Amino acid sequence: MLYTVGEMARMLDVPASTLRYYDKEGLLPFVMRSSGGIRMFQESDVEWLRVIACLKSAGMSIKDIRTYIELAMQGDGTIDARLALFQKQREALLAQMAQLQQTLATLDYKCWYYETAKAAGSIEAPKQMPLEEIPPRFHSVRQHLQDVPKQLPDEMPKAI
Predict the structure, then answer these.
(1) Using one digit for the tens of pLDDT, what is the confidence trace for 42-63?
(2) How many Cα neighbours within 13 Å face the side chain of 98?
(3) CA nearest neighbour of 55 among 76, 27, 35
(4) How far apart are CA 110 and CA 127, in angstroms?
(5) Which of 24, 26, 68, 154 is exposed most, by the fewest CB atoms within 10 A?
(6) How many angstroms separate the CA atoms of 14 and 57, rounded?
């Protein structure tokens, strides 16, 4: 069965403009066109479109997604290159997730901090609290927030 841009967009719960954008960026070389130039999607295109959406969610650039699709269209001789693209993006996503975990831990600490301050009626209560009285899950966050960065060496005088 063939689907129009609008029908495929509804099936995938994305705006039709997203599919048009993908096409404009060269991400849909597999999509058929009618004799009048209208994009006609097949059921087999759903997997491609979901992979593209996944890669975008993972932070992969349009350029790298295009590269992946071009490699995939070339066949089995590009398996290693495609695998390398996915491994690189996976590592980038893992690093981003670690950063987000650190951010969430900091926000959790600050929620605890202000809940404690609110209960005590002052921010001095959590501020002056010794580390051993702070919930253990917040120890590393507090230490990270209070660590003073090491000073960079003074710049060398510039030649005149």
Answers:
(1) 998 999 999 999 999 999 999 9
(2) 6
(3) 27
(4) 11
(5) 154
(6) 13
